[in-house]
TrEMBL record:
<feature type="signal peptide">
    <location>
        <begin position="1"/>
        <end position="19"/>
    </location>
</feature>
<dbReference type="GO" id="GO:0005886">
    <property type="term" value="C:plasma membrane"/>
</dbReference>
<dbReference type="InterPro" id="IPR056413">
    <property type="entry name" value="TPR_CcmH_CycH"/>
</dbReference>
<dbReference type="InterPro" id="IPR017560">
    <property type="entry name" value="Cyt_c_biogenesis_CcmI"/>
</dbReference>
<feature type="domain" description="Cytochrome c-type biogenesis protein H TPR">
    <location>
        <begin position="112"/>
        <end position="244"/>
    </location>
</feature>
<keyword id="KW-0802">TPR repeat</keyword>
<keyword id="KW-0732">Signal</keyword>
<dbReference type="GO" id="GO:0017004">
    <property type="term" value="P:cytochrome complex assembly"/>
</dbReference>
<protein>
    <recommendedName>
        <fullName>Cytochrome c-type biogenesis protein H TPR domain-containing protein</fullName>
    </recommendedName>
</protein>
<dbReference type="InterPro" id="IPR019734">
    <property type="entry name" value="TPR_rpt"/>
</dbReference>
<dbReference type="InterPro" id="IPR051263">
    <property type="entry name" value="C-type_cytochrome_biogenesis"/>
</dbReference>
<dbReference type="GO" id="GO:0030313">
    <property type="term" value="C:cell envelope"/>
</dbReference>
<keyword id="KW-0677">Repeat</keyword>
<keyword id="KW-0201">Cytochrome c-type biogenesis</keyword>
<dbReference type="InterPro" id="IPR011990">
    <property type="entry name" value="TPR-like_helical_dom_sf"/>
</dbReference>
<dbReference type="Pfam" id="PF23914">
    <property type="entry name" value="TPR_CcmH_CycH"/>
</dbReference>
Length: 387
């Protein structure tokens, strides 16, 4: 399978070069070109996060597979013909993240395995998908039969299920029903906007723009809303405005948030077209300074000069510094998550369990749509099962 994937990528790259030779240059360049560049940056970000212990092995694997799936999807779109409309030049940066998004939105879309899979495993996967499809249909019928329009949580669950099955258009329809609830908050509208964007191959449509505007009206600090607003501006040719939009939001953050890395990558992609110097995460979230997520550049350089024993001791000292700070600032849910990941990297299962348990205790005020919730619960489940 890896050779098939490499062949598809090679054909995609050739198609982009050929298209650029036959088409007049656009202000923003071919959409596929830009999307592949973003996806390449995202793969690098995942690798760096995995090396720093910010992502577990399972989290990193899932993220890589999802990004690779999107790379192949871009290749398929390229081969089906030219994109209509010169303004359609930026496809959605994947889920991230994640978190943002890390985290969250990625987990909804799934990640088809690119490596060889046994026939029995494929059959089991098909059977499982059929079961999920059947359950989703039953849930849809129950929600449609509800005289009060169906519960917000039910429509959100249905949307998440459709996203997992790769049915983005159906997911968007479910999320649209969720937005009609009086209890629909900013996150509901930004998730709806994302589903619309995915269903349109990364294009921020007028309908998606309206959802984004509503999300930001309800919560101007919603990072997903801000991100897709910037993507939409860039697609419309307003690169300067899109660039400033991202940097302004980064300036508003006090400390570190998982979605910041996606913002930095997108700002640098847009900034390159504007001739701007690259920015870095450390410009907005200085590392290892009180509540930072990782080592400083000096720390990394020092560690590279050490032997294995000294390096291990050095890393443990940094982890201990984080643990000490969290005892003094126990309400830092992101800090406990970072500590849990660090302990997992070090093989300290009991300490990792304790750290994630402390993070779980802080989930009470967290929205059910916050991607950190699923990450914490999944990590606890993996640790308790010995994975």
């Amino acid at each position: 399978m890896i050779w098939i994937a490499m062949a598809v990528l090679a054909l995609t790259a050739s198609g982009i070069v050929a298209a650029s030779a036959w088409k007049p240059a656009l202000v923003q360049g071919p959409a596929e070109d830009r999307t592949l560049a973003v996806l390449k940056d995202q793969l690098s970000e995942v690798d760096r996060d995995a090396e720093r212990g910010l992502l577990s092995v399972a989290e990193a694997h899932a993220a890589r597979q999802e990004i690779k799936r999107r790379v192949l999807s871009v290749g398929r779109v390229k081969n089906t013909g030219e994109s209509s409309g010169g303004g359609r030049v930026i496809l959605m940066a994947a889920a991230v993240f994640v978190p943002l998004f890390a985290a969250g939105y990625y987990s909804f879309a799934g990640a088809p395995n690119l490596s060889s899979i046994a026939f029995e495993d494929r059959q089991a996967e098909v059977a499982q998908n059929r079961e999920i499809e059947a359950l989703a249909q039953k849930l849809l019928q129950r929600l449609q039969a509800d005289s009060e329009g169906g519960a917000l949580e039910g429509w959100m669950l249905l949307g998440q299920t459709f996203m997992k099955l790769g049915r983005a258009s159906d997911a968007a329809s479910a999320y649209e029903r969720a937005t009609q609830s009086m209890n629909a908050d900013s996150a509901v509208f930004s998730i709806y906007a994302e589903a619309l964007i995915v269903s349109e191959q990364g294009i921020v449509t007028p309908q998606a723009k309206r959802a984004i505007a509503r999300a930001l009206e309800l919560d101007p600090t919603n990072p997903a809303g801000t991100f897709y607003d910037a993507v939409g501006l860039a697609q419309a040719g307003a690169n300067e405005q899109a660039y400033n939009r991202l940097l302004t939001r980064l300036d508003e953050v006090d400390g570190f948030a998982p979605w910041m890395e996606t913002f930095v990558a997108e700002a640098n992609r847009i900034g390159a077209a504007l001739g701007r110097a690259p920015i870095s995460l450390s410009d907005y979230a200085p590392v290892m300074s009180g509540n930072s997520p990782g080592p400083t550049a000096a720390d990394v350089e020092a560690a590279s000069q050490m032997d294995d024993v000294d390096r291990d001791a050095f890393i443990r000292s940094m982890v201990e510094r984080l643990a000490t700070r969290l005892e003094a600032e126990p309400d830092d849910i992101d800090g406990w998550m970072r500590l849990g990941r660090a302990y997992r990297v070090l093989g300290e299962t009991d300490l990792a369990l304790n750290a994630y348990s402390r993070a779980k205790e802080l989930l009470v005020p967290v929205s059910s749509e916050d991607p950190r919730q699923s990450v914490i619960l999944q990590s606890l489940e993996e640790l308790q099962s010995g994975q």
